[in-house]
Amino acid sequence: MKVFNYKIWFAYAVISIVAILSVQSCGDDGISLPDLNVFSIADEAALGRQLDSQIVSNTIEYPIYNNASANAYVQDIVNEIIKSSAIKYRDAFPYKLRIVRDDATVNAFAIPGGYVYVYTGLLKFIDNEATLAAVLAHEVAHCERRHATKRMTKSYSIDFLLSIALGSSPGQLEQIAGSLFTNLYLLKNSRDDEYEADEYSFKYLKTSKWYPGGLIYFFDKIGAQSDASFLEILLSTHPLSADRIDKVNGYLKEANIEPSESNVFTERYAQFKASLP
Q1: pLDDT digits over 102-135, tens only?
Q2: Does any domain span residue 201?
Q3: The total number of structural domains that make up the chain
Q4: What is the residue range of 229's domain?
Q5: pTM for this model (two decimals)
Q6: Does 1 fall in a domain?
Q7: Residue 25 maps to a domain
C-alpha cells in the first residue's frame, strides 16, 4: 500500500500557490504576494552562515575592520536591540555585527540569518548614537521579517523552491550563497520592505534607552547633501521616499517621545567617531 506523503503534498501546494500568484502580481505598484516563505528558520540560519563566510573571505570588496573596541561598541548596540520583546529569532539567529572598512561607502546591510554589516563610511557620516541604533535596528528588522528569503520565494523556479521546501538538496543553499556577489538582489529591498523595517526599528527602540526616531536624523542628513552621488549604493539598496519620512514622524507623534542628550547620545558618539581611523 502506497503511503501518502503529506510533506510532499504540502510543499507542492505551497509552491503552486506562489507560482499562480507570481503570475498575478504586478510588483511594488500592484498586487502584493502573500507573506509566504518556503525557507525554514534552520535553512535561513545556514544560508546566513554560508553568505557570511563568503563575505569575510572576500577581502577586496568587504575589508572587515577588526578593531576590538569599535566592534564591541557597535555589537553592544545590536545586543541591546535584540532584547526587545518584539524580537522573535534571537535564539535562532546569531545577530553578528561586522564593520566593513570603507570610508567612501555610506551604507549598512543585512543578510538572511542575522548577520549585519555597517561601513565605516556610515559610522563617520552620522552624528549620534540614536541614529546608529535606528539604522542597526532597521537592518535587524530585515532579518526578523525575513525579507530576503521571502523575495527569493517569489522569484526562484518551482523546482528550486520545491527542493528547498523538502530539504532534498542541501547544495541549493550553497548555490544561493555563491550567487551573492554576482546578483545583488539579496540586498535590494522593496519599498514595502523598507516601510516595514522602519516600523520595526521604531518598535525595537521604543522601549530602549535610545530615541526611537533616530532614522529622521539620518533621512535629514541624506536630504541635506547637495551631491548625493556617494550615497548611490545606500539609495539603491534602501530606497528613500517622502512616505518613509512621514511614517516615522507619525510613529513619533503617536508615541510622544522627545529627543534629548540622554537618549540621543551625541557626545558619546563623537568620542567613538574620533577613535575611528
Answers
A1: 999 999 999 999 999 999 999 999 999 999 999 9
A2: yes
A3: 1
A4: 39-154+183-275
A5: 0.82
A6: no
A7: no
